[in-house]
Amino acid sequence: MPAQLFVSIVEIGCFFALIALGYLIVLYGAGFFHFALGPYAMFSALGAAYWVTVSEWPLWMAVLAGVAAAVGLSVVTELLVVRPIEKRVHGEELPSLIAVVATLFAVSQAGGTLFGRKPFPGQPWLDFEDPIEWGEAVIGGQTVIIVGVTLAIFILLAAWLRWSRYGQWLRAVGENQQAARTLGFPVARIRLAAFAMGGLIAGIAGPLFSPKAGVNFESGLSYSLFGFIALVMGGTGSIWAPLAGGLILAALQIAASYLFGSPSLNYATLIAAALFFAFRPEGLFARRVRH
Amino acid sequence: MLRGGSAWVESIVTLALAIAAMVAVHGSPYLEAVALLTCTYAFIALGMYLPFIMGGALSMAYNAYLGVGAYAMALLATRGDWDLAWSLPIGMIIAAATAVVLGFATRRLSGFYLAAVTLLFGIAFTTWLVDAESVTGGSGGLQGLRVPVFAGKPLSNSTLVMLTILAVWIVALALSRLRNSPFGVAVRARRRAAIAVESCGIPVSTLTLVSLALGAAVASVGGSLFAVTNHAIVPESFAVDIVFLCIFMPLLGGQDRPWGAVLGAVLVVTFTFQLTFFKETGSLFFSLAVLLVLVIAPRGVLGYVLIGLQKLRGGGHAKTQGGAARNG
Amino acid sequence: MADLILECRGVNKAYGAVRALNDVSLELRAGEVLGLVGPNGAGKTTLVDLIGGEQRPDSGAITALGRPLAGAPSRRARVNGLARTFQHPQVALDLTARENMLIGLAGPSLATLSGQLRELAAGILGAGSRIQRDSAHGEVERVAAALGLADIERECRELTLGELRLVEVGRALLTRPALMLLDEPFAGSDAHGVAGIRAAIAEILRNGCGVILVDHNVDIVASLAHRIALLNLGAKVFDGDPKACLASPEMQAVYFGEREAA
């Protein structure tokens, strides 16, 4: 396989890993699969591209605004959609699932309405005039940024979970909200922090990766879906598991495309997902259950 | 169980509405086109009703069932020489078989996992439509579809419209009766008390597969109708986003009765195609409306209409007839 | 002597290193109420799961109505003549009490694919449903009345916990079991709820079943059961008359710790 494809695997893998990380944080803090993270990433990327291209903002401002929008959307989703519904149905999973799917759709449509339905190219954060050559592969500036930012986010998040107050609480709450509440944890605030953090990660991931592949208002669905698959493959046992899952999924997709043509990307993902769900739904790094 | 009296009322009132619709659109090609589009969506929404609204299984592969119905109809009836009376059931059977295979493969999955895998299947299906050029015509789709023959005679547009409105009425009525039948009660119990159903000796996995198969068959009729009313079909029409509309129509229209799914189809067509104020933003307003319904008014439009009617009738002993109230 | 409905012989079950059941044997005959008591971790839940078919024993035999039961999943357990209620009532809250109970009656007709398809067709056509024909005899209403359940056209979300438990019992009764397993039916119940279960047990016995009654509340169980089996740490330490059990040194040891003989 050409060396350049390995570079693509790393880039795409990092993107999936970040979305999966967002899922993991919300899962820790609220016991919920935040299916709408993909559109948040899309909204941030599309918005940033729009503001740079059409409104002629400087890049840093556009990206910051995109990230802020993603955080805002995530927080609003928790406060106005997920929390009221979970309160009403006490434990049935289906209504929350439907609601987050509706949110996914609504945010995608909002992006299309606000920023238009045409695809936008992303704006690179860093452009090398002489890209680095590594063997037969060429590594551009944005690639370095993608890897660097991804690792930085993972490291910072691992530290936050280990040493900050909210981070520690997040790990403790997990799926057992009732028990946490009885023990006196401020569950509402922890949930909010988790959703905000998820939105933050997705909001950064979007504009980070869009220079590589462009973005349009419908991208959010596959971001959400592939991020979820990456999460399941990696497992929930470690903060680094999403990174493994993201890289594996990216490798799978790129290998399939290279070997069998681009349609097989979707076939391969379907088969791999079905196999993982059937035989190893806890992923590669399973969460050790404490009795 | 639905008492005999109210069952008759339901049949007559809805039949009257169906006939009124037929009369209203007769003679106007534009309105007839709108009616056909609404009926297409109605079949899709009704296809969702049994497995999803009643049974609580969210399978998101519905674009595949639509596509199967459409391509089967296109290949057999409107480009081949088959009579519609044959090609329609064939599409339904293939769609049902697809649903059974997918349902069997995902029988141990639920919730987010089921949604994710079925969504992937839907995406893979659209990819296959483009990929399998020799069968499906690839990204160009199938063109030159002509009016099919039904029972030996070519179908005029007005006849088609009347037949489809009637067909929607029949399917919705059948689902309404099914809902109150013992089979329907078992399916509805599956949603929140699957353990109980199992403990009474009823294999829940079989129940789910049967519902999925029937739902897929109904949805495929919508696809077939789509092929009949257009002169060409392309893979884009069966992309996965249509699944969202499928889910939202019965929710917005109202979960208590299958008629809510039909109402939802009317609302979708109105929001996204009719109201020029909305234009391109119709889908956005529609999705926001769905969110509003989910959070604040889970019974949907029809649900609150029914509540209003009961209050008018004087509340008292009237109860929600086996209704699925406040379930979100 | 009445028919032997259930027999457990030398049943063992371990989860990893933890021995949940250690060589447990017991019998149940028709018309008998067997109380199963013991502190948390005694093995009551495990034994219930084994009898109900949700788990298999590691060794030993469980026979129901003379046929071996080992390893039957819950559905096949029903075919073996067992029905159970759950600690947390498994009831579809958006359906009426009548509809929930109907599921018990519907079991045999919906047990196979062909049965389901037949009922599907019958449901659409409005005729030909075996379940409707059976329920037309008023079976559901009769059982509900016998259990003291009023107005079964109410949606279950409007019912009290005690009434939900009765709905579960009614549904289980309609499956015409030989053995009823009541799992912690008194948890969270008030006096009214307890009276309801008392009446339910009387009705169950009238139907010729045997009952296994599992609960933490030893006093109530003792007042309802013909015999009590006391479990502790996976072993059966007492099997006999309820009053004798309450006064026994084994009961003292299990619940109050070892004491010197008075």
Strand content of chain B: under 5%
Q: Characterize the biggest β-sheet of chain A.
A: 2 strands, antiparallel
Number of domains of chain B: 1
| Helix-strand topology string of chain A | HHHHEEHHHHHHH
Architecture (CATH level 2) name of chain A:
Orthogonal Bundle
What class, by secondary structure content of chain B?
Answer: mainly alpha
Strand order of the largest sheet of chain B: 1-2
Distance between the termini of chain B: 22 Å
Tally of strands of chain A? 2
Number of strands of chain B: 2
Radius of gyration of chain A: 19 Å
Account of the protein in words:
The complex is a heterotrimer of chains A (291), B (328) and C (262). Chain A has 291 residues and is mostly helical. Chain A has a two-stranded antiparallel sheet. Chain A is globular. The mean pLDDT of chain A is 90. Chain B has 328 residues and is mainly alpha-helical. Chain B has one domain. Chain B contains 13 helices and 2 strands. The longest helix of chain B has 26 residues. Chain B is globular, with a radius of gyration of 19 Å. With 262 residues, chain C is α/β, with parallel strands linked by helices. Chain C has a single domain, classed as Rossmann fold (3-Layer(aba) Sandwich). Helix content of chain C is 39%, strand content 24%. The longest helix of chain C has 16 residues. Chain C is globular and about 65 Å long. Chain C starts with a strand and ends in a 6-residue tail after the last helix. The model of chain C has no long low-confidence stretch (mean pLDDT 85). The interface between A and B is large, with 42 and 44 residues.
Features:
heterotrimer; B: 328 residues; 2 strands; 73% helix; globular; disordered C terminus; C: 262 residues; alpha/beta; Rossmann fold; 39% helix
Brief summary:
The complex is a heterotrimer of chains A (291), B (328) and C (262). Chain B is mostly helical and 328 residues long.
Set down the secondary structure blueprint.
The complex is a heterotrimer of chains A (291), B (328) and C (262).
Chain A lengths: L2 H28 L6 H17 L5 H31 L4 H22 L16 E3 L2 E3 L1 H23 L1 H9 L3 H6 L4 H27 L5 H16 L6 H20 L3 H16 L12
Antiparallel strand pairs in A: 1-2
Helix pairs in contact in A: 1-5, 1-6, 1-8, 1-9, 1-10, 2-3, 2-4, 2-8, 2-9, 3-4, 3-8, 5-6, 5-8, 6-8, 9-10, 9-11, 10-11
Chain B lengths: L3 H22 L3 H26 L7 H17 L5 H22 L5 H21 L1 H4 L12 E2 L2 E2 L2 H24 L1 H18 L4 H26 L11 H13 L4 H17 L7 H14 L4 H14 L15
Antiparallel strand pairs in B: 1-2
Helix pairs in contact in B: 1-7, 2-7, 2-8, 2-9, 2-10, 2-11, 3-4, 3-5, 3-9, 4-9, 7-8, 8-9, 10-11, 10-13, 11-12
Chain C lengths: L3 E12 L2 E12 L3 E5 L6 H9 L6 E6 L2 E2 L5 H6 L2 E3 L12 H10 L6 H13 L4 H6 L3 H9 L13 H13 L5 E5 L7 H16 L3 E5 L3 H7 L2 E6 L2 E6 L1 H6 L1 H8 L6
Parallel strand pairs in C: 3-8, 3-9, 6-7, 7-8
Antiparallel strand pairs in C: 1-2, 1-4, 4-5, 9-10
